[in-house]
Amino acid sequence: MTKIDSVDLYYLSMPTVENVADGSQDVLLVRVRAGGWEGWGECEASPLVSIASLIAPMSHSACQPVLGSVLGQTIDSIDDVRRITALVRANSFDQLQAAHTLSGINIALCDLLGRRYEVPVHELLGVRAASPKTPYASTLFGATPDETRAEATRLAGMGFRAVKFGWMGFGESSLSADVDQLAAAREGLGPDVDLLVDAGMAWVGRPDQARARIPALHDFRVRFIEEPFVAEEFDAYGEFGTAARQVGVAVAGGEGCHNVPLALTMMTHAGLDYVQIDAGRIGGITEAKDVADAALSQGRTFLNHTFTSHLALSASLQPFAGHGAEGLCEYPVNPRPVSYDLTTTHIPVDGDGLVRIPDAPGLGVTPNRRTIATYLQQVEISVQKRILYRTPDLDVVSPADEEIAA
Ligand SMILES: [Mg+2]
After folding, report:
1. Rounded to the nearest whole angstrom, what is the distance from the C-alpha of residue 131 to the centroid of ligand 1?
2. In which residue ranges of the chain is CATH 3.30.390.10 found?
3. Which fold has domain 4-119+366-405?
4. Which of 10, 27, 254, 366 is the most buried (most CB within 10 A)?
5. How do residues 208-261 score in pLDDT, each as one tens digit?
6. How far is the CA of 141 from the centre of ligand 1 (A)?
């Protein structure tokens, strides 16, 4: 039996973080080590808050530090990943950030097992041959329609069969401003590339504003509209979706789900056509797999949510590796250097415009230690002068870990 020896978190950041809807500006990287093997994961998370969730002293029995449920646990099979995940859920139930921290750990444990048994993670999940995916280039609207048009032209020229634009005030100002952005996107893409739109929760509490956009979404042949509302607005989703589907526009959502029950409930009660799950937020790869299986059985399309690194991309592709050939997947096209350079290799778009999930052991991508060193933010958390956390050395288990473990 192999025991988990260490869980190390690394906070990386661009020198400046801008107030824009771009989650690739910083990274919370996770390394787990067990019996001489190691694995890597990434949390879709506010890094410092998630580090606190790892080591914050117990507040009560359902509010324990995540680390206590992971360190020293047996890790020999994917069932152990599921068992450890359930233990963190129970012991840190009332510590809301725990889902994000757990996600990166779950991903790293899957990577570790894959490297140890020399199989890709999807094989650990029961999928022998991964299907290729059709990547949609995922980016933000331009600041102006001209910028959007130019970016659409560029991405179509790169061979993408589908492109998603989002955020940057879309849905928040006038209907005519949104029409201008949609027209520019469609013009730049041409008639044959699928256009997808991420509303970025622009219509929270304003379902009338969402409904008012449906004719324009239809006119510019938007394949799906994503996140018109926050995840929990099931009724608004349901009513909007009914109207949108009548004109051939599908509804996507789910990236905000941080546990399986919420994702399953949202899927059915919000009536999602596309279920978008981020393995770095929902609790990890095994949790995302549960949602993917349920979506498939209900005839809904499962998608990854990924806007950051190719480590996160590989992790979020594994849960639906076995779903139908050439189905869509989200593919980040403009990540910041801290995210793009996080791995030494990348998951390319091939000459046919398809993405192939790595078949190398684990997640099939390896963190770039030079990038980590370049963007690493040294963190120290102490209470009453007792150090609870200090950024671990990249290669040596730090004394602080022993202290936390004790
Ligand atoms: Mg989104």
Report:
1. 24
2. 4-119+366-405
3. Enolase-like; domain 1 (3.30.390)
4. 27
5. 999 999 999 999 999 999 999 999 999 999 999 999 999 999 999 999 999 999
6. 12
As a whole number of angstroms, the distance between CA 296 and CA 327 comes to 12
Please check the confidence at residue 341 and state whether its pLDDT lies above 70. yes
Backbone angles phi, psi at 156, to 5 degrees: -65, -40
Pairing type for strands 274-277 and 250-253 reads: parallel
Per-position DSSP letters for 74-91, written without gaps between them: B-SSHHHHHHHHHHHHHH
Instruction: Write down the pTM of the prediction.
Output: 0.94
Neighbours of ion ligand 1 (CB under 5 A): 198
pLDDT tens readout for residues 148-199: 999 999 999 999 999 999 999 999 989 999 999 999 999 999 999 999 999 9
* The CATH number, out of the four listed (3.30.420.40, 3.30.428.10, 3.40.1030.10, 3.20.20.120), of the domain defined by the range 124-340: 3.20.20.120
Tell me how far the alpha carbon of residue 25 lies from the centroid of ligand 1, in angstroms: 16
* DSSP notation for 307-373: -S-HHHHHHHHGGGTTSSTTEEEEEESS--HHHHTTBSS---B-TTS-B----SSBTS--B-HHHHH
- What is the rounded distance in angstroms from the CA atom of residue 236 to the CA atom of residue 132? 34
8 A C-beta contact, residue 291 and residue 277: yes
3-state helix, strand, coil in the chain (%, to 5): 40, 20, 40
What is the rounded CA–CA span in Å between residue 112 and residue 132?
A: 24
Predicted confidence (pLDDT) at residue 50 exceeds the cutoff of 60: yes
Q: Tell how far the Cα of 133 is from the centroid of ligand 1, in angstroms.
A: 19
Query: How much distance in Å is there from the Cα of 151 to the middle of ligand 1?
Result: 18
Contact by Cβ (8 Å): 150, 385: no
**Overall average pLDDT of the 130-157 stretch:** 96
Q: How many other C-beta atoms lie within 10 A of the C-beta of residue 153?
A: 15
